[in-house]
Amino acid sequence: MTKLKPKQKPHYVNNRDFSEAVYDYAIHANAARENNTEMPIVTDYIATCFIKIAEGLSHRPNFVRYTYREEMVMDAVENCLRAIGNYNIEAATRTGKPNAFSYFTQICYFAFIRRITKEKKQQDIKFKFIEKMGIEDFVGMGMDDEGVEHTMQYIDTLRQRISRVRIRDNKIKDFAKEEKEREKLELFMV
Fold first, then answer.
1. Which residues contact 130 (CB under 8 A, 6 or more apart)?
2. CB of 23 within 8 A of CB of 89?
3. 53 touches 63 (CB < 8 A)
4. Domain boundary assignment for the chain
5. Which of 74-78, 122-126, 143-147 has the highest mean pLDDT?
6. CA 67, 71, 77, 79 torsion-angle sign
7. Mean pLDDT of 159-179
8. Which of helix, strand or coil describes residue 121?
9. CB proximity list for 39: less than 8 A, separation 6 or greater
10. Does position 190 have pLDDT exceeding 80, yes or no?
């Protein structure tokens, strides 16, 4: 297997070219705002770079295994399109040059986090619904005894899993709460 150079990778975005394109767009957008005219349309190049940035970030180990990865990417692109009007061309960077790549990567990252949070809430709702439903709601009419038995085993397994997940989540929340309180106490002691 040959190793691809960074510029050959499918999600590669040249930071210099991208930053220049965003800089030019920001200048036109600022002029349009000052003149109360219609905002310029985002170029295809910039939009393609947003997709590449979001798609590349979604392949990172901390995001790659989510089944709703495509929704995460599209949320990120939408947030980038909304945020491009807020891009500050005078923001100080380490190099002194505009760095649109890092700005929009952060926007994508936080869009991913928001999508994960939404999906986990939906998953909790589904688990609670399944947990509270009666067994007779799951058992299909006209099912033979063997089918009913398999369904009952599945439901029991699912309920046990839900309980384990809920216990683990509560332990994590309690630990985080204790850590936060300990940090506050340490700040007051100093």
1. 155, 158, 159, 162
2. yes
3. no
4. 8-116, 133-189
5. 74-78
6. negative
7. 84
8. helix
9. 29, 32, 33, 85
10. no
Rounded to whole angstroms, how far apart are CA atoms 68 and 65?
9
Selection from 59, 143, 54 nearest residue 101 by Cα: 54
Residue of 91, 55, 97 whose CA lies nearest to 72: 55
Task: State percent of the chain over pLDDT 90.
Answer: 32
The three-state secondary structure class of 94 is: coil
Distance CA 77, CA 39 (A): 18
Distance CA 69, CA 55 (A): 9
User: Which letter does DSSP use for residue 84 in this model?
Assistant: G
Could you tell me which residue, 138 or 12, shows the higher pLDDT?
12
| Residue 26: Cβ-neighbour burial (10 angstroms; 0-12, 13-18, 19+) | buried
Mean pLDDT taken over the chain: 83
CB neighbourhood size of 130 (10 A):
14
Mean pLDDT to the nearest integer, 64-91: 90
Q: Which amino acid is at 18?
A: F
Confidence of residue 6 (pLDDT cuts 50, 70, 90): low
Helix (H) or strand (E) holding 128: helix 100-132
Looking at residue 129, its pLDDT comes to 77
**87 contacts 49 by C-beta, under 8 angstroms:** no
Q: Is pLDDT at 4 greater than 80 in this prediction?
A: no
